[in-house]
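Morning!

This is the sequence you dropped in the shared folder:
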Amino acid sequence: MSLSSLIFLGLETELSNTLMEKTKTSVGKKKIIKILITITYIVVILFAFLAISSKFSIGGFRILIVMSGSMEPAIKTGSVVVDKNISNYRIGDIITFKNKNQPKETTTHRIHGIKCQDGGCFYLTKGDANDGVDPEPIESSQIVGKTLISIPYFGYLVEFARTLPGLLIFIIIPATIIIYEEIKKLYREICLLLAKRRK
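The structure's back. Tokens below.
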């Protein structure tokens, strides 16, 4: 084999290797972009769900944020709690209830006593970290639900997500990225379709 043939073969091999590396890099980048888009989808859906479920009951479940330390150590300050509306509540259950004078505000405390009379029940509640029971008994109509799960400190993140900067970071910017990527994908598909028609 001549010198020129060897040089040409070497260049061809080098070019082939370079193209393969670029293809691998391109595939790797596409995978990373897909993963990032999937994470973005999850973030948007999660925070949108938390925003809705904190205001409304979904399937009898409600997600709320505990921003006081009255239930420490069982429920940490800044926890997210998942409540379920049930028919019977017992002593020892942790419940969330609406405050009588300010129905938009809720409190999450443990049931320490139950008094039933005239066909209705009243619940005596107490925060685990408090010295005494709450001053007013709770009516059944005030109860949002029984606390099933608490996620420590996640409430701080949710609270931040409700602010304007948080809304931008967790909802608007991710949603914009998703829309942009979907438009790019649609544009590529249209271009491919037009190219096929021209052929």
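Headline: The two ends are 43 Å apart (CA to CA).

More detail when I'm at my desk.
O.
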